[in-house]
Amino acid sequence: MRLTLHTDLSLRLLMFLALKPDGLATIRDAAECYGVSRNHLMKVATQLGESGFIETVRGRGGGLRLGRPAAEIGIGDVIRTTEEDFRMVACFDPGRSTCALAPACRLRGALADALWAYLSALDKYTLADLMVPDRSMRRLLGLEDPVVRR
Amino acid sequence: MRLTLHTDLSLRLLMFLALKPDGLATIRDAAECYGVSRNHLMKVATQLGESGFIETVRGRGGGLRLGRPAAEIGIGDVIRTTEEDFRMVACFDPGRSTCALAPACRLRGALADALWAYLSALDKYTLADLMVPDRSMRRLLGLEDPVVRR
Q1: What beta strand segments (E) does A25-139 contain?
Q2: Per-residue confidence at B70, pLDDT binned at 50, 70, 90?
Q3: Å from B55 to nearest chain A CA?
Q4: What would the 3-class secondary structure string for A25-48 be?
Q5: Domain containing residue A79
């Protein structure tokens, strides 16, 4: 049971933008920081933009920024948007299931309960909750100079 | 976010065996009922056997049966056994993660909470809970004659 790479990168792009609250970031910056494909991150940014999680400032000096404060971006909502497939097993889609038991089986209900519990747990977190302590995260991404010990 | 086909088939094989409490079943029977690969189901049976969920009776007239009553087989336990990969995102495995944020990021903790909630929800179900009403399920699998309306 894994989240898709698309969701993984979506969360990481949001965290990257949360670390630059005063400025704009580019896809290139984020891709370099994480060592991931710029093309893939572009697709991620397009979807996050369509969903209002991020916004694009066009023109010279433009870039990306969060669409609203990090404390107003729920992690459950992000994952509901970015994960394409919540059909835990084939029979989640009864019309297309080939399982002979599908009409009577209670497995689907049990797994739906579990999925609800999973997303509810994530609804307790906002993007801001993931960013503590943000200074050490900025340092890890090279967005802030390392501490100089005197 | 999906469970693997291996887990899907594991649950279905257990349900098949739960529908035959008085007799033994064969891989061939179960594979035919579900229209799935006999080879794949054999691998599933091997793992379920090693974990004690099912047992094999060898020899002529032998076959498979549940290793303990369906009411004592927890669905959370089955899924913990059959799902190989609970690393929700790459950084669940910090030693192998390439994400620059891994040392400071709280995403891992949030996703671990959610996974715990998911499995805890499944811990409330046993195999027996999924088998109600078992008579209509037996009928769907052709293990019982259809009701004759007079």
Answers
A1: 54-57, 63-66
A2: very high
A3: 22
A4: ECHHHHHHHHCCCHHHHHHHHHHH
A5: 5-141
Band (pLDDT 50/70/90 cuts) for residue B138 is: confident
| CATH number, domain containing residue A60 | 1.10.10.10
Q: Is residue A147 part of a domain?
A: no
Residues B52 and B23: their CA atoms lie apart, in Å, by: 18
The answer to whether the pTM exceeds 0.90 is no
Taking alpha carbons only, the member of A22, A130, A10 closest to residue A71 is A130
Number of domains in chain B: 1
CB contact under 8 Å between A107 and B11, yes or no, is yes
Mean per-residue pLDDT, B9-19: 92
Q: Up-side HSE of residue A2: CA atoms within 13 Å toward CB? A: 13
Residue A95 domain-assigned (yes or no): yes
Contact A8 B89 (CB under 8 A): yes
Smallest CA–CA separation between B147 and chain A, in Å?
16
Tell me if B146 is assigned to some domain: no
- The answer for residues whose C-beta is within 8 angstroms of residue B117's C-beta and 6 or more apart is A117, A118, A120, A121
